[in-house]
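Before a colleague's protein record goes any further, I have to sign it off. Would you go through it and say whether the fold makes sense for this chain? Take the sequence as given and treat only the tokens as open to question. The record follows directly below this note.
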Amino acid sequence: MAIYVSLPNQKGGVGKTTLDLHLAWRFQELKLRVLAVDLDPQGNFSESLLGVQVLDDLEVEDNALYAKIEQGVVAGAYARRSYHLLSAELIAPLKAVPTRYEGLDVLPSLIDDTSLQAVNKQPVDDAVNVRKNLALIDKDYDVVVIDVPPQKDTLHLAGVIASNKIVLPVMMSAYPMRGIRAMMHTLEDLNEIGVHVELIGVLVNIFNSRSSTHQEGIRLLHEKLGPLLLQHKIGYRTSLDTSVGDMHPVWKVSSGAARDAAEQVRGAMDEIIAKCGFERQLNEQLTRELKQRQQRANARKAKVPKGKTKKAKTSPKTKGVSNE
């Protein structure tokens, strides 16, 4: 059975979609079979995984789905968008859309997906349908990463209920404990009705290490959360926005300015992955990356012509000073 993980927050602007994308990409690098699910009607998660043209084509395909079924044409008819997950009964089998990364598929939202947004008018009881319907295909995957909208509505609850494990992203400048308490209350309410979701960590995002306010906030979070507070923190970096726009993780950005962001984000994703129970796959990937770095270093050394070394700079002789 797949592990279901999400990074929900009931306040917007904490960078959850950027984190979800990097988590899905990192899971894929570990050679795991990954299903991404976009429950946010904005569609940013899907756009960075598939691109605008693919989403436009899917909208046309989905509009034709109902016509096919009415005509009795069932061959090749699939439900490939996330809004179908809220249905009590699927009108066609689920089939995720492959991305450019092998082993990473997605059940997408459209950009400004009105069909998905309309789901919030359905009864909250329909939120349980997401997990029920995903169970029909999760045998094909090792992990499911769910992008959850920030508002506490049917779609938000559906994403949280579907998750085995959640990580709560917070910003130091946005009253972090308020958001944490709200999510913990939601988890307590779900637990009372028999829905058990494990909070495995709190991740500080968009952190300014030079801010005394942020430093004090970290100290208070340590006091209140203890080991729930993840060791890795992520600062604001423009290279993160660039990487998401270019549809690849920040550690694939070639500019030197992206190195700090890559180290922070990959460190945080690896910490989450370990808490999800994939330590073996993570260690194997870290070993592969170490070998790749060594190979690149050896290749650079091999390009230096034999017998040629950089001349050491010599200090000019000081007048009036004798070597005797």
